[in-house]
Each structure stands twice: as structure tokens, then as C-alpha cells.
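Action item from last week, closing it out:
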Amino acid sequence: MRSRLPLLVVLIVAVIDAMGIGLIMPVMPELIQEVSGSDLAHAAVWGGILTTAFAVMQFLFGPVVGNLSDRFGRRPVMLVSLSVMALDYLVMALAPNIWILLAGRIVGGITAATISTANAYMADISAPGDKARRFGYVGAAFGIGFVMGPALGGLLGELGTRAPFFAAAALAAGTALFGYLSLRESLPARLRRPFRWARANPFGALRAVARLAEIRMLLLTFFLYQVALIVYMTIWPYFGTALFGWSPGMVGMSLALYGSVYALTQGALVAPAIRAWGDRRTVMVGLVLELVFLLFYGLMRHEMLILISVPFAALAAIGAPALQSILSRRVGDDQQGELQGVLSSLVSLATILAPVVMTQVFARFSGNDAPVFAPGAPFLLSAAIMLATIALFWRSRRRV
């Protein structure tokens, strides 16, 4: 039991992190309209700006946090990140205007390192053959939180747009306290290395890992994959509201439905899939499924069919842990924190670029002056990016 406690604590951190994100998603369209005085199409654009501001900070500071965890350990980094996350949600709960909301997102982005640090922690405590399975556990925990968060956020959202933010702040603060009392350090002193700004610089960190020729193409594959999938986080609440007039409760229910199958996929299907197909084929299956469902959401306008498809779309998540496992095996044990920081920066870079584009496409095709009413247009753009991702990963087959 003692040996399993660190694993349990990290998984709880992942659950709470995802709950905090999921809690606020159902109310974001209404909250942004409330504080900015804009319509839904322009609220989506502001949503993209908030997401991009958060991601810029994450991109700039992700490698710093990853290298700090390589120097000082995973435990203090996770505890500080959770504490600042609690303050960030509290600021958003009290924000009187869009500018305070934006400031809260900027501060939150600087310390949003819990998932990348949790993955580094998992790499520390896992044998090479167990890494994909345990990355899958983190994904499953994130999925569980994503089930609970939107469902609770949708219910709280019916009470007011601010209620989910107070709940998210309480969850993050409670998790920080739990981690302080029960989380032990995973990185031995002999594996720690000095902090260097050359590695902590986001572009320097990318160069440091990309020097390994065998992972350059895989890093680009990972980046494009993230760019394509940003559409769900950025557009889904606005998409459902524009097409079907969904309330926060309905948005929360659809996200919870996705998250429940996502958690099952990550926790129960990843390991059998890798045993049956191997890492590379598992990644390819996931990418192809993502392409199919992005096209489906881009073209479909039948509410019931969209809701029925949501749990099946979550099965596509089967490929992500396999791709992480491939990357993790390509670097040394003393570089796991750096790698996770780089992957975090790639996610952040994708989140910098994609939301602005996706929300502009949504606004163009859902506003009053739209040439054609097509709220699903961002999903079609993401499908094209996913097709390029598949082609790139196929080309990397000789290096995997």
C-alpha cells in the first residue's frame, strides 16, 4: 500500500486538475458574454484570446517549471502549481470585467504545470515497460476528472456563472493540502541536475531535445496532433450553443459523457491495445479515429446523432499514451522532466496558435453576417490538420 500511495496521490492531482478545467467550461460562453457585453460569436473570439493568453504563459514557463522539477524535485513544483491555481480560479470567480479575467488567465498560465509534472513523476516511478500503462492511468484520471467536472460545473452553472469558479478554487486548494500531507518526492538526489537557463528557455529546450534526430519527427507529430484537438476545448461549448441552444447543464452533460469513455479508454484499453498492436499501430488507430470524428462534427447537424457519437469519439484517445511512451523511451532517465516540459511547451504553442484561428473561423461562420451558417467549420479545419498528422507519423515509421 505504501508503494502505491505516490501513484494514488498523483492520480488524484490529475483528477482535480481536470475537474477544475471541466468545471468552468460549461459557463464560459455565458460568463464571457456577461463580462464583455458581446454576442455568442464575439464571446467565442474572446474565449480564444483568453485561451491563447494562458497558453503563451504556459509555453514560456513550461520548460522553466520542467527544469525546476529536475533540479528541486517534482513535489514542490506540484504543490506550488496547485496553490497558485487555486488563487487563479478565485480571481476569475470575482472578475468584474474581461480584463481581470484575462489577468487571471495570464497568472494561471505561468504555473499551470501540474499535468506535465505529474507525467514526469510517473516516469520517475515506472519501469520502461510500464510507462505507457501509467501514462494511460494519468490520462484515465484526467478523464475521470473531466467526467465529474463538467457534470458538476453544469449543475453549478445553473446557479450562476461564478459558482463553478469558487468550486474549482476549493478543489485546487484542497488538493494542494492533500499533496503536502501525503506526497513524497520521486526524483532521487543523484538524478537531479543544475538548473540552466539555456534548457529552461522554451526554444532552447526544444533545441536540446530535438538534437536527437529520431524524435524530431515525433515531436512535430505530437505538435500537430495537439493543434487539431484544440478545437474541442475551444469550440465545443459555443458549437452546441449555436446549433442547439445548449444550456450550461447540457454542455456539461455532453462533456461528462465524453470524459467517462475517455477515462475508460485510457485506464482499461491502452495496455491491451499496445500488447495487441504495439505502440506505433496504437497511435495510428487513434489518429485515424480522430480524423473520422472531426469530419463527422464538421458536417453533422443532428443533435441526437452528435450526442450518441460523443462516447465513441472518446475511443480515439487510445493513441496519446502510446505516443508519449515512444517519446519517453527516446530520452534518458535524467531528462524526463525536461521532455515533459518540452511536450507541455508544444501543447502550449498549439494552444497559442489554434484557438485564435478556430474561434475566428467559428465567428465567421456563425455570426449574423456569416456567408453560410456552419458552426462546424473549425472541426473541418482540424480534420485537415489531423490528415497531415497521420501522413507525418506514417513517414516516421522507420524511426519508431
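Closing note: The mean pLDDT is 82.
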